[in-house]
Structures are given as structure tokens and as C-alpha cells.
Amino acid sequence: MSEINKPNGGGLQRVFKASYCSYLGIKAAIKEEAAFRQELFLVLIMFPASFWLAQDLIHWTVLVSVLLLVLIVELLNSAIEALTDRVSTERHVLSGRAKDMGSAAVTFSLLIVGIVWGVSLYLKIFA
Q1: Neighbours of 9 (CB within 10 A)
Q2: pLDDT tens digit string along 45-82?
Q3: CA distance 116 to 121
Q4: How far is residue 123's CA from residue 127's CA, in Å, rounded to a whole number?
Q5: What is the spatial distance between Cα 42 and Cα 95, in angstroms, rounded to a whole number?
Q6: Catalytic residue positions, numbered
Q7: Please, which pLDDT band fits residue 10 given cuts at 50, 70 and 90?
Q8: Contact (Cβ atoms closer than 8 angstroms) between residue 46 and residue 36
Q9: What b/e readout covers 17-45, taking b as 16+ CB neighbours within 10 angstroms?
Q10: Residue 118 and residue 73: Cα distance in Å, rounded?
Q11: How far is CA 107 from the centre of its chain?
Q12: Which of 13, 17, 109, 126 could form a disulfide with 9 if both were Cys (CB 3.0 to 4.6 A apart)?
């Protein structure tokens, strides 16, 4: 398939269009998804704390990366839920399973944050 047939074109034009689509996705998540807003709020609080908590640049990178991971997984979960609802709003075992698995992924990403930040806080206070 040639680049001409791709909806966002090619080259630098594609980068700009893809960036705009990303902006629209983040804007929609903030407007429509309460869970995303809550997690974004926590990230905005925890991000400044990462400068105090981190022992070095690599440690800071890990602290911030796991926060971004939660937002990424929540966006994917929201996309799964939106697509599932678009296909059909009736209750179906597979639709429920897809939504539950997306939710489980968010839970595991939050668990990763808890572990990384918890160990970091423990080391900062007791080591």
C-alpha cells in the first residue's frame, strides 16, 4: 500500500496529523472519562514529588515512566470500552470480558506504580 492511500498521508504531514489525533484523544479522555481525569490528577501531584523522591536520573525516569504507563493503559482501556459500546450496548459475555480485562490491565499498572513508588519512598525514608 502506498503512502498516498493512507488516511494521514506520509512524511512530516503524517506526523502533524497523528499528533493532532493524539491531542483529540487526550482531550476526549479528559472530557469523557472520569477514571482518566482521576489518574491524571494523581500524576500531576506525583510528578513534582518525583524530583524529591528520585535518587538519580535513572530513578526519576522510572518513577515518571510508571506514571505515564498508567495513563497509557487507561487510554487503551477507555478505547476498548468505547469500541465495545459502539459495536453494541447490549450485555454480552465477550463484551463484559473485554471491558473486565481492560480494567484488570489498569489495576496492574496501578499496582506497578504502588510497588515502584512504595519501594522508592521506603528507601528515601529508611535507607
Answers
A1: 15
A2: 999 999 999 999 999 999 999 999 999 999 999 999 99
A3: 9
A4: 5
A5: 29
A6: 74
A7: confident
A8: no
A9: eeeeeeeeeeeebeeebeebeebbeebee
A10: 20
A11: 12
A12: 13
* Sign, Cα dihedral of 56, 60, 66, 69: negative
- Record the cell numbers describing residue 65, joined without a space: 515512566
Query: In this structure, what C-alpha cell is assigned to residue 56?
Result: 538519580
Total-model pTM: 0.90
How many C-alpha atoms does 106 have within 13 Å on its Cβ side? 19
Query: Residue 58 and residue 54: Cα distance in Å, rounded?
Result: 8
DSSP per position, the chain:
--GGGSTT-SHHHHHHHHHHHHHHHHHHHHHH-HHHHHHHHHHHHHHHHHHHH-SSHHHHHHHHHHHHHHHHHHHHHHHHHHHHHHH--S--HHHHHHHHHHHHHHHHHHHHHHHHHHHHHHHHHH-
